[in-house]
Specification:
Elements: H1 2-56, H2 59-85, H3 92-106, H4 108-116, H5 122-141, H6 149-181, H7 186-208, H8 212-222, H9 225-240, H10 254-278, H11 280-289, H12 291-343, H13 364-422, H14 426-452, E1 465-466, H15 467-476, E2 484-487, E3 492-494, H16 496-515, E4 523-530, E5 533-539, H17 547-558, H18 571-582, E6 586-591, E7 597-604, E8 608-610, H19 665-679
Parallel strand pairs: 2-4
Antiparallel strand pairs: 1-3, 3-8, 4-5, 5-7, 6-7
Length: 680
Amino acid sequence: MTALVVIWGFAAKLTIEQGQQLLRIQKVYDNVVSPVGQAINELQTERFVSVSYLAWRTSSLRTDLQVQRRKTDASAVLLTRLSEEARDETPPAMWDRLQDLIRQMERLDILRGQIDDHRLTRLDAIEEYSSVVETAHQVYDRLMISPDIDIIEQAKALILVTRSRELVSQQSALVLGAQAAGRMTQDERDAFSGMVGKRRLLYQLGTSQLNADLLRQYGALNSAPVYTAFVALEDDVISRVRPGQPLPPEAIAWPTTAQALTRQLTETTDTAAAATAASAAPLARSVLWDIGIVGGLGLAAVLATAFISFRFARTVTGELITLHQAAADLAGRRLPDLVRRLRRGEDVDVTAETPPVVRTSSTVEVENLGRAFTSVQHTAIEAAVGQAELRKGVNKVFLNLARRSQSLLQRQLGMLDGLEKEINDPDLLERLFGVDHLTTRMRRHAEGLIILSGAVPGRGWRRPVRLYDVARAATEEVEDYLRVDVNMPHGYSLAGSSVTDVVHLLAELIENATVFSPPQTRVQVRGEPVARGFAIEIEDRGLGIPQEELAHLNARLADPPEFDLADSDRLGLFVVGLLARRHNIRVSLRTSPYGGTSAVLLLPQEIVVENDTREPVVERLAQPDTPPPALALTPPIGGGAQDSLPRRVRQASLAPQLKEERGDLYSSFRAGWQRGQEDS
């Protein structure tokens, strides 16, 4: 009996307190919730008018903006006054956020001054006002003044719908600015796409938790023309609008459609919120009448409630754990693995890679959340596949353009080679050599595009080439090659399969050294064998690179990231990193003792070949019958004064393997036949 009395007294006490808390809901709604909603409406309207003023800047809009600002300030004053009357009934966390909102509304003059001075873009103005509205929504998030589960669920659902209405208001302001400008920027379109996804998710989650009466109101709204027109507006912007391109003709009706839906959502949400608050009073009176019954049925109710709660909590907890594990597996394993496969060029089936996160669930909310996660993963994987396809397309474009340029440049070099053999004028020949050298550099840049696309340039050598000749060939592909000093031992060669890439790699580094150092200084290219291969150092005497930048560049050279089209400032170093990784070459930058920069290459032993050392043979040379002129670089042909002038021989300093063979079809056939005879 004593235990029953204790249970009855405890249950009665809880029941009475619950009734009192239910009776407090109406006062908090009238003094806090409703004024906050009014403040949100005024802030949304001021945001829309502010964006209109930034878009058109007319005197009439200036007047409307001043009127709206006074309304916003009046709503802030009313919120301050009414909330003080319900301070004791307001939960502490909700009260703290309410004070933050009031302080932010009092500091709106700073934002307004920036708008008046046109120091903000339309998108910035939308974000600034949205941050204040977000604080107001956080006041709603802390509306925990009732222990009744149904009221709490309905309140949370309405909060989600209210947040989706805020996103509709943001979209309305954004499309208004785009309509004024006649086009959307990339940032505005990205922001709009994000708003669409969040709005639909919040609206779906919110309406799915409403009871039958409230859901009927939103069901009527969903089938209304204003809602279907707004969904069509969202789809049009996402599918048809291109950044920087003119808007379609129907864009003139977008702001009107968005504003109409904002007003309709506001009316529907306010009606639903008032109905939810009003439902607390009958519940309170019913609780007070049920106090007499609680004593007799308290124990059974407690036991039944404990059992049901335990079963429900265990079910929901298990489903949430499953959902959490699926989401963690998606973020931690599946998506990274998918991205790695796409980078390797593998084909990915989006449908097969996006199974439902939660297949079945006894809880509607968990099932809805699982469907939302499934939609998110489908969108993420689809976006990753799209980016991979775009990257493949860009690589194909690079490769196609580079191959075409390489073919044309090769033909141009052949034509220049023929002209060099026909022209005897030294001045004209020197200028022709300059064009030849420029064409060679253009060919290197074309090969750089081929390397960026992941392909291999067409040039190659079968036999090893001396490292000295490789360095000389790289120097000849640099514009300011006369400033480069090459000091390389002659006893080492490079494997033929690596010659093309190493020449390109050295040329990029030598060109950087010549470009970023004073024109009167020399660039040193030195090489020596080391324990783990062969080291080549390229040293300039420029201004150097800061240590932070050096560390960043060395990290990129050691592990080249995925190529970004927007990052083209150091395209040569990116090509260097790709070539180094292809042949397992280590490239590092460091500060030289002279204040400049030194690039050190470590060629692995696998591609370095040590030449056979032989004793030189000294033979007596026969004296020519007629000694050539002292300055002749090639044997004179004929006896004229013009024929006796010195002539420069192109690529005379290169090894035979590195000299370009650009002649007619018969010459190419003969050179190939000779190489075949030598290989056999």
